[in-house]
Amino acid sequence: MQKQVFWLGLGLFVAWMGVSLAQAKSWIATPSPALERSLSQLPQTPYTPLEWATLDELERLELLAVQTQMLNPPRTARALALLSVAANDTLAALAQRPGADANVAVAAAAREVMLYLHPTFPNFKDAVRGAARDFYQAAAQAGASPQSLLASSETGRQIGMQVVAFARKDGANRQVIPEYPKAAPGVWELTLGYTAVEPGWGNLVPIGISNAQLARATPPPAWDSPEFAQDRAAFWQKQQQLTDRDKAIADKWAGDGGTVTPAGLWQEAVVAMLKDRQVGAEGAVAVLTPLNIAMHNAFIACWRDKFAYYVARPNQWVKTLDPKWAPYLRTPKFPAYPSGHSTISGAAATVLSALLPDAAATFAAMAKEASDSRIGAGIHWFLDGSGGLDLGERVGQQVLEAGGVVHAGN
């Protein structure tokens, strides 16, 4: 098992209430001589907390890169998770120490992670370096001492380097050529001339737990079973009754390359909610970090099971009924079960409902809408959605347990 993740705790909820935030604990970074050296250089001056302006700019830059480079949904979720962990672990290392400037430190950590994530994007790399420099200079103009600035920046750099070191070994850049099963009814077929999307993603190292411990989807029913026959009939009936609202929801959650993808949609919605509730930036990091970790881990679990069950997409079956039919949205190049949108949304709703329990109904409705959107889009069976939501809920619970997050009433 990876390094144990410690208590995040009830302070997440009281932070929303406008009280104090319990000290964050690290997900990836660990003490090192270099990190301890930089922390020891902090002067005895007031702590400068993280501000929303810093968090907003870092999120803006990363989502811009995601869209410009057309990262696919699993890679986007990974990027957001690594960036959140860098911010979280930096705040944990600083622990509101006198002399620390959290804006300078978090920006330095994020710089290292984003430069790693987007190595072939020169303009973006310049923007990331420029943002970190701007936060450094703004702190200097506000009266921070050179000693505080140097120590804060080096602390963030050390944390960022540790997160990057983890990422370099998580398997995201490992090429995998799957052995596809023989063609048969109900077995997914890759269109000739195309490559599957991230067939090895299920082998990645999750954050907070090991791959072997990661929750697994409930096996789907057999293709020739009455249960799957009923599901196919329900899908076809739905396709004959698509409404404008169904199509609008499908478009809303589509999240293809060139967008912020589903993980980005969840993050944007939660950021807006936290700001509306006047949660501070450090409290927001404490919410966004387990959220993004859960979505990243959920994609790993989902992709592992997609390429284990190889369930056919609806278009393969419908062409035997109506060769002229086409799904509302383009069918992705990977197997159907379980649904990726459903899995990450189930994970997101589970984590967020534990951290912000008064909004649990809102998160559950968002997850259900995201799941249903793929059925209306014509690219998933109903059972893909229900199986994904169930898997995501269990992945989300694993993240909560790994972080020691407790419900506000417990």
UniProtKB/TrEMBL annotation:
Pfam family, one: PAP2
InterPro entries linked: PAP2/HPO, PAP2/HPO_sf, V-haloperoxidase
Residue ranges of every copy of the Phosphatidic acid phosphatase type 2/haloperoxidase domain listed in the record: 301-394
Gene3D superfamilies: 1.10.606.20
Tree of life domain: Bacteria
Protein name per Swiss-Prot or TrEMBL: PAP2 superfamily protein
Protein species of origin: Meiothermus granaticius NBRC 107808
